[in-house]
Amino acid sequence: MDLKSNHNSPVLTDPASLSKSRLGLPSNMTPCSPAALPFSSSVSSPRKKLNKDLISECQLDDNDAAYQTWMINYPSALNSFHLITSYAKCKTVALFLDYDGTLSPIVDNPDHAFMSSAMRAAVREAANHFPTAIISGRSRDKVHEFVKLSELYYAGSHGMDIMGPIRISESVGDHPVCIKTTDSKGKEVHLFQPAREFLPMINEVYKSLIEITSNIIGVKVENNKFCVSVHYRNVDKRMWDEVGLRVFGLIKGFPRLRVTHGRKVLEVRPVIDWNKGKAVEFLLESLQLSQRNDVLPIYVGDDRTDEDAFKVLRERIHGFGILVSNVPKETNAYYSLRDPSEVQEFLKSLVRWKKFTASQTEDYNIDLMCIG
Ligand SMILES: O=P(O)(O)OC[C@H]1O[C@H](O[C@H]2O[C@H](CO)[C@@H](O)[C@H](O)[C@H]2O)[C@H](O)[C@@H](O)[C@@H]1O
Description:
The chain is of the alpha/beta class.
């Protein structure tokens, strides 16, 4: 169950049924009905138990069949690794990674979404071989606190808070919301905060959201600097509508803010023409990787907000989006990975491939030198 993507309506819907009909999956992929099973409703309890097991087994099979069908259009990035690297050959791969649900598993408490040390090692290695950035809905400081790596770039608040390399480009480098500063290690960087003027408003809304949801058990309001998250994952399902009503009700009084939603979370953010897709373009330009046809951007993410980036990669900058999901979803991504453990495997494979191609180039150069 989730909130509908219609920004004006807090109506709750079931995304599983939605995605099934929208994806046009075959009708035989609906979950088994008990009537189709060889037990009557008046069976004794062990039989009832068997019946229940059979239904869930059947549903699992159906879900898996639906996923396999979906994967025809969104193949596994691991299974398609050779194809991906054949495109990447002789190109600079630029990596963009979402955080929650991509580098860390989804957990009930957002403050406990820790990254495993194995994942951290994989991301570090990847960042040592490819220009890498993390683009998260979290505040930039919070995601840095989780990731703890200085080898890469960070964009927080869905791309509205980017700390990147010093931009050579005059056009945006001189933009009033882009300032020169130093990072925690004293290195000169550019800080790009296109929603800076919204800071007082966001802080006001953050306080009001805490106030108006304080008597709903399980709600958690998280300040992500340029946006606010209202989590309802731990709220009794019967109260989900009420959470939606209160949040949308409050935001009605702030025409310059809007509400989007992610995984059991409502996100209040400024109405500005900026999103994770724009952040990818901004970072590519900062890294001097835009306007080149020897660059392959790859974006890995699991959330609806990542769709903006997938769209930019698909339509504008010729890269690959990889959706992390273990259920069929509508997406602008090209490939899929089931969960963060597959993301880790994918990152490790990319590094292995890069090392291998680098060693081959070295061998080739040595051969050339010998011939010369
Ligand atoms: O862009 P992301 O890095 O994916 O951030 C999106 C939101 O992620 C976090 O919430 C989600 O993960 C939590 C921890 O696993 C989970 O408890 C919650 O239900 C998810 O929605 C984060 O807390 C939000 O602020 C981000 O906007």
